[in-house]
Amino acid sequence: MTRVFSLRPSLLFLTGLGLATAIAVGADGAGRVARQPLAGLDLAQPATPAPLAPRPLTTADRAAAATAWRYMEANTHPETGLVSSVAGYPSSTMWDQASYILALVAAERLEVIDADELSWRAGKILDSLSRMALVDDQLPNKAYHTGTLAMVDYGNSPTPRGIGWSAVDMGRMLVALRVLEDRHPQFRDWVRGVVARWNLDGIAVGGELIGTRREDGEETALEHLQEGRIGYEQYAARGAALWGLDATSAISAGRVIDWHGVAGVEVATDLRRAASFGAITPVVSEPYLLQGLELGLNGEGARLAAAVYRAQENRHARTGQLTAVSEDHIDQKPSFLYNAVFSNGRDWAVVTEKGSFHPELRTVSLKAAFGWDALYGTDYTARLRTELADLAGPGGWAAGRYEADGEPNAILTLNTNAVVLESLYYKAFGPMLR
In CATH, what number is assigned to the domain containing residue 285? Predict the structure, then answer.
């Protein structure tokens, strides 16, 4: 089962460790996992569209970067250096603090902030990472109070033993720390000291990404589970591999791909369907964008990403509806949704982590618009950015716009604004990791 995280899901998509190999025969793809080739993916052919080379930023780009940074200014807790995942709510995950570190690096290179501010901010968050409590003295908890560094549960209540760690969130943090030490070597020893505190072998076992959870209170032992679904799994595995961890099974999607036609495009979906594996399987923009913006898309990733993008562009061409789908907070219940190209048996599904459908709440994602525009720079991505330009505000960029009525999804989040800064960095300089 998956765990609902009311502030920001930590992208767990959990299944039982070893379940894929334990089920030899079954419906919903269970019997095919671990022996599925990259059928239908011709790596000899170039991806279409292909990621663009760096190009000059416009005046609008620079204004967009300044707007995104206002979120960081408004939501930083000076006592810890952490930034809240959602404006006004003092809690966050390792995923979102990684987003902040990447936004910080991007903002300094884009000259939104100066070197002194980067130094102060990087020092504060590295200090907090160096001293925050760990789950069973092994790895960071799934959530922390951003003002006190206390480990918290999903309701932001203190939980002294923690509720477990997320391998996917940790994979993103490992990407961010590698980028920070690469771009700013003066922090390398500090970064290495932070990483040395963590039992990283706990997130990568036998080539798989492994997370944990503590479901029934402080006295229970941690339950270990395989973690990750298509796109997210490969992104986090690349982060783990940067630090020498064995993520060899998770790093390619080949073993779990099931091709599915959406809007005239064959899109890679995950064989591990919810009915057999107990976890949603959304195909969204987010992990492909992050791979491209931060690490550069490898051969497999470039082709899978291009298909996810083309399906969205084609939906607009066929229906007239602007389409840019990803995971996003929303400013009403159920608070967080995966707006997907495909999920849980449906094209263009909008799902919670528990698998309930909410098509009436589909949004056009601001961060997806910026990310795809940075990678591909098409007429369609330019239109997306133009149509969403009014979402800029004094506290940062709002998350998007509802398809149904065109009203803004007015919630302000760290991840939305971080991806804007990463996107503009990529546009100007290419991937963040050299």
Answer: 1.50.10.140
